[in-house]
Amino acid sequence: MKPKIIFIHGMFLTPKSWEKWVGYFENLGYECHAPAWPMHEQEPALLRENIPADLGSLGLATLYRHHAALLEKQLTPPVVIGHSMGGLLMQKLAAAGLIRAGVGICSVAPNRMLAADWGFLRNSASITNPFAGDEPYEMTPELFHQNFGNTMTEEDSNSAYRDFAVHESRQVLRNIMGEDGQVDVDQPHVPLLFLGALEDEIIPNTLVARNAHAYTDERSHSEYFGFSGRGHFICGQNGWEEVALHIANWLESHLAATRS
């Protein structure tokens, strides 16, 4: 019997970004769920128009506890597929022994791993700006095209913004530099797959590769693969099916080697 798959979205998105993925993997026989982060349950357009009052205080520890509580209720450990900050959450859940296998797509890296890439530095500084206090970071169509949809036409990027983008708490990204952003990469772990987007303006593919190769246990499996022509919106832009197929094939080969 195939395990359940839990999809975890990243910053500036909601579970709506996984709709096509849920259908894709359900057609392959997986039971799939895409839970929302706290204060990310509504339609993106509504969340942009009415920013939740406490959004600015949402932090990484709260997100981890939220998802860990969901996984602790599962009868058997599920597969977790996370995008961006969802990828870091996947790594933390894997370290806690709560998953059967994990996939991180353009994952935010733990353990204060940084990159000298200009896009990474520009975005990180803009979001974590201490002078902004607890005011949520407001995503605009222009920012979305520059940072998420940079390999898409402006028209396609703007359409994706309308359908999927939300404003976000700055605290989540700020917290990765502290204790909440730490992951023990030396312990044995379940199979892990890290996927990078070679044109990503938020999480450079070189950082995703470093993240994958940081795991040191020789008995455990961690691998990296990069997709050309993709930006940070890799899960939603044209060609997402190729990424999903790569993951499906990887799961088929690696789940057989893990215990049910």
Automatic annotation (TrEMBL):
Gene3D superfamilies: alpha/beta hydrolase. Coiled coil: none annotated. One of its GO terms (molecular function) is hydrolase activity. Transmembrane segments: none annotated. SUPFAM superfamilies: alpha/beta-Hydrolases. Pfam families: Abhydrolase_6 (PF12697). Keywords: Hydrolase. The keyword Isomerase does not apply. Residues 5-243 form the AB hydrolase-1 domain. It comes from the Bacteria. This is Alpha/beta fold hydrolase. It comes from Luteolibacter yonseiensis.
